[in-house]
Design a protein that fits this description.
This protein is an alpha/beta fold. The protein has 2 domains: about 15-170, Elastase, domain 1 (Roll); about 185-335, Neutral Protease, domain 2. Helix content is about 40%, strand content about 10%. It has 10 helices and 9 strands. The chain has helices spanning about 15-20, 30-45, 85-105, 155-170, 175-195, 255-260, 265-275, 285-295, 305-320, 325-335; strands at about 60-65, 75, 120, 130-135, 140, 210, 225, 235, 240. A 5-stranded mixed beta sheet has the order 2-1-3-5-4, with helices on both faces. A two-stranded antiparallel ribbon has the order 6-7. A hairpin with a 4-residue loop joins strand 4 (about 130-135) and strand 5 (about 140). Helix 7 packs antiparallel against helix 10. The radius of gyration is 19 Å and the shape is globular.
Length: about 350
């Protein structure tokens, strides 16, 4: 079976399909699914042209004005002052935060390691219910205002850009366990980005992915890294399907073999490890080991499974940190049913 590296946006297909069944008279959910697929293909085919070449790590925000033409109209670039549209300003600040986090904390020059410009388009489409990285840029829909409140969120931007980081380094294939690791790493670094910008310790953060994404405040977020399977539960949206243990993993073929579903397993392992260490996740062995396993000289191969990734993190931790820290990592993987040595 051919393994894909295409990404499906921050909103998993099963959520949009559930919504399309709940609201059969609203075509926006199925349209979002189809539009996300087409937008990714545009990126792969290089049919979109951008100002300023790679190598400058510049933030460039465009406004699609509810069209689907990428990248849209220039809205705010480096050196530009804030504009009247606050969505543009927020996206600009979040893209700059991604760049600064990568450079200052991990020594990575932009999402591609080569100084790539951090491009984003806001107001993509009409009632486009997703945010997406097509391999060349980010695009943010406005949502429908009924289920989805906003997609311009810090951890969402971080999540999608870190797909680009993973693609440039470990290249984790977007299917099955390697795809779930790809998704999980984006969750890990998206949440750490939020913690970094807000100076939050592991005990101060919610460990939620996408808090504020849903209109209904009872639906807390898209995912809960500490407690997979508990982020949302709603008749229209569905119930968070993430397992918290390897024995309860999804074994089917939908969702590219469960990339969004089974990512809850390594998510919980990381959050458990980070919490056991205390302090700031990006400064401790938690952030450093995960980064090395994804982008460093000891990074995993593209077809890596959960067991291999877990053992790689333990091996890195054992080489770089003390026995007590390594034992905490081994214990964190054991919590989710993955044995290491």
């Amino acid at each position: 079976m051919k393994r894909s590296r295409s990404h499906q946006g921050i909103i998993p297909p099963y959520v949009l399909l559930h919504l399309s069944n709940a609201f059969p008279d609203d075509p926006s959910y199925l349209w979002t699914l189809d539009e996300t697929r087409k937008m990714h293909l545009k990126g792969l085919r290089n049919v979109v042209r951008y100002r300023l070449s790679n190598g400058k790590s510049e933030v460039q925000i465009y406004d699609c004005k509810n069209s689907t033409r990428l990248p849209g109209t220039r809205a705010r670039f480096e050196q530009d002052k804030a504009v009247a549209d606050n969505t543009v300003n927020i996206a600009f600040d979040y893209h700059a935060a991604v760049r600064d986090f990568l450079k200052k904390e991990f020594g990575v020059d932009s999402y591609d390691g080569k100084g790539g410009n951090l491009i984003g388009s806001v107001h993509y489409g009409y009632k486009y219910n997703n945010a997406f990285n097509n391999g060349r840029q980010m695009a943010y829909g406005d949502g429908d205002g009924k289920v989805f409140k906003t997609f311009v969120l810090l951890d969402v931007a971080g999540h999608e850009f870190f797909h680009g980081v993973t693609g440039q380094f470990s290249g984790l294939e977007y299917y099955g366990e390697s795809g779930a690791l790809n998704e999980s790493i984006s969750d890990v670094f998206g949440v750490m980005l939020r913690q970094w910008l807000n100076n939050l310790t592991v005990d101060q953060d919610s460990w939620l992915v996408g808090p504020g994404l849903f209109v209904d405040p009872k639906q807390r977020a898209l995912r809960d890294m500490l407690n997979p399977g508990t982020a949302y539960n709603d008749a229209n949206i569905g119930k968070d399907p993430q397992p918290d243990h390897y024995d309860r993993r999804y074994k089917g073929s939908s969702d590219n073999g469960g990339v969004h579903i089974n990512s809850g397993i390594p998510n919980k392992a990381f959050a458990t490890f980070a919490k056991s260490l205390g302090g700031y996740a990006w400064k401790t062995a938690a952030g450093k080991v995960w980064n090395e396993a994804n982008t460093g000289a000891r990074h995993v191969k593209s077809d890596c499974d959960f067991a291999t990734f877990a053992q790689t993190t333990v091996d890195i931790c054992r080489a770089d940190y003390d026995a007590e820290t390594t034992d905490k990592l081994i214990a964190a993987w054991k919590v989710v049913g993955i044995k290491t040595k």
